[in-house]
Amino acid sequence: MADTIKPDLCVIGGGALAGNLAVQASQGGLHVVLVDSTGTRAVDPPQGQLRHAAFLASAARAQAIRTAGQVGLDNAEPKPNFRAIGEHAAALAAAAAPRLAAERLAALGITVLAGAASFADQRSLKCGDTTVRARQFVLATGATPVIPPLPGLDAVPYFTPDTIADNIRKLSHLAVIGGTPESFELAQAYRRLGSMVTIVPQGGLLPGFEPELVAILLQALREEGVVVRDDAEVSAIVPRSQGTGVTLRVAGGEDSLDVSHVLVAMGRAPLLDGGLLDKLKLRRDRLRPDHLLVGPDGQTSSGRISAIGGAAGEYQPHVATRQAGLLVERLLGQGNGRLDPRQIARFIATQPALAQVGPVATGKPRAGHGVLRANLAETDAARAGGQMQGAVRLVTARGDAIVGAGAIGPGAGEIVAMLALAMARGLTLGDLGRLALPQPSPAAALLDLAARHLAQQPRPGWTRLLSGLARFPR
């Protein structure tokens, strides 16, 4: 017998983002249906990010053992056990998985439907014998890795950032194709765990990130032994009886690599199932036809259908999580649900970490803008931890208003998060300079920047007069 459900919100997707959105909306008092359509859980594992972070942490611990001499201990060469590392990461993910188990969601009052789903029209979704007529539908179906049409690639086994999490063997020489944050994070991790690693950025070296900060990251990776071939592009993959050949296109000719494994990390594309969406005829982005056209609040060309996360072309998990929160606020009438792109912090979980918010472009600043720099390696926190690479860069306007920031080094993520909050709240560099930070703290560089900036500003005549009077003895 066919059923019809009329919830406030219908979330479509089987990953962590969809589950967390459903929980948040339900806790806000909304009637929620979660549709876990066939295949979404396989390409958007609920705890994929946790497994990735755990693997990076294992690699960071190996590097800490190798470089212990920087803090007065004996250096030692770590002996990674990839099976144990993989089992550790999988166990952490499994321990967290029950938070989004179907049984827990049902206990929270969320109706969970599983199986192939398709829209009958813009007001109703069919899943098996059930019809869902929701006030708002949300696509949270995730994204899938982009696979380039490289000759020979389909003739060899290769990894993507999703599938390499299941690897339990040491890779003797890993070729990483792509210049995305994921490619650099995994390249550094595998190098720290004993593999030879060569990155070929393939048409883009961390696009959108400040080149001055990227150059510091590249230097750090090269010092660890990662080979970055930013002078080349992969033109073909050559299957061999032993290993794999990678043909490179370089200025004036060709070069080649002999590798054991290939990782393709060239970004992601929205997972938009045609069977699910065909009848909706949603408008696509003119410049990126594989992406939906969405507004700043995630709204598609249909007033009843929104998209968040990978489905909306947003591949940073922390930003997607904020999109979900804003969507719930909008449905509850608590805000407009819009995310200001100028206040979105971006992050690369390498060591040194790189983070950025707002415009921090190099070259001559715009009229009225100023650029301030500080060396994070000169903070007491960096010296104490033996972390001697890093920088912070601020773009200011109208005196000491903060309009952009970038940082690389110890505490870069926390520093940029602090600056993103300051920008959102309209706080100035002078306001940050009045903070009392616990020491040693990487964020102390901000206090130094604020002090130097304010010292360079012209002081009103009456303050100079008071300063002069204060020097006379009473």
Characterization of this structure:
This protein is of the alpha/beta class. The protein has three domains: 214 residues, FAD/NAD(P)-binding domain (3-Layer(bba) Sandwich); 114 residues, FAD/NAD(P)-binding domain (3-Layer(bba) Sandwich), CATH 3.50.50; 115 residues, Enolase-like, domain 1 (2-Layer Sandwich), CATH 3.30.390.30. It is 31% helix and 23% strand. The protein contains 14 helices and 23 strands. Strands 4-3-2-8-18 form a five-stranded parallel sheet. Helix 3 crosses helix 4. The relative contact order is 0.11.
Topology:
Layout lengths: L2 E3 L3 E4 L3 H12 L4 E5 L3 H4 L4 H19 L15 H15 L5 H6 L3 E4 L2 E5 L2 E4 L2 E3 L3 E4 L3 E3 L27 E5 L3 H12 L3 E5 L10 H13 L3 E2 L3 E8 L4 E7 L2 E7 L1 E4 L3 E3 L3 H4 L27 E3 L9 H15 L13 E4 L5 E4 L11 E6 L5 H6 L5 E7 L3 E8 L3 H14 L3 H5 L10 H13 L4 H10 L4
Parallel strand pairs: 1-7, 2-3, 2-8, 3-4, 8-18, 10-11, 10-16, 11-12
Antiparallel strand pairs: 5-6, 6-7, 9-17, 13-14, 14-15, 19-20, 20-23, 21-22, 22-23
Helix pairs in contact: 1-9, 3-4, 3-6
